[in-house]
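Record Peroxidase, 326 aa.
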Amino acid sequence: MSPYILAVICILLSACSFYETNAQLSANFYSSTCPNVSSIVQNVIQQALQSDVRIGASLIRLHFHDCFVNGCDASLLLDNNATTNIVSEKDAAPNTNSTRGFDVVDNIKTALESSCPGVVSCADILALAAESSVSQAGGPSWNVLLGRRDSRTANQAGANTSIPSPTEGLTNITAKFTAVGLNITDLVALSGAHTFGRAQCRVFSARLYNFNGTGNPDPSLNTTYLANLRQICPQNGSATALANLDPTTSDGFDNNYYTNLQNNQGLLQSDQELFSSGTTLSIVNTFSSNQNTFFQSFVQSMINMGNISPLTGTNGEIHSDCKRIN
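=>
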């Protein structure tokens, strides 16, 4: 059955949650209840960037790690709480000692509660913060679809299994994207968010010294780049020392990430593997040669990701504090 016919049947029967939830998200969702929502988010991030140039990359990562676990529902933001039986996703392996920017999310929430109390969800704050972070770093801007509500539960076990790992192979990562309804183009485009931000040595140091247990570096690494990374991450050095994900324009949002992959300068294994097989390799080449094409694909893929299983209508709630349920 064609997608068009399926959509018509869904509309007639109101039977397909995918079409229903997407229809309920709207760029104008807060136009009457909190018309300044976008500018409030932008101002808080602009202020945070003055003291922390990394914050934009950190905020988009929060949105990514939230959406891959039970959908875009702000469950990642919830703290441990024995009273409400919440086991925090913050303590899952992909997030612990690595996700950051929660304080900026709290500052955005405080500003929004002051302007329009009880209106804007924490899930929508993450989506808006991701867009603002990209546009303020020189990347594209877009109309964020809004209307998500916040989860009353967290899923630490899901966070441990569903979030793509920087040390995973392309087959596994593709499967994790497919599981949430995202395709190969989404995978390559969203990986382009690694055009800014940092990664800790512990995440990629095996590539420098003992790739896949061989006792040798990853043979795909550019030798000059390998030498530079070994200076940042000596064999017995700090596991939490930071390297730029993009060695060329580390704090700007552009298509240099893909040129780096062509030059075997992908920092993470999951990055460089995009340049190892036919389908993803050809998309990398396309994005490297045309920044506008990358920007357009990135925007569409961010919208696609933001559409993963949102809570809408009467589901969930609007958290007054993003760290806890009401």
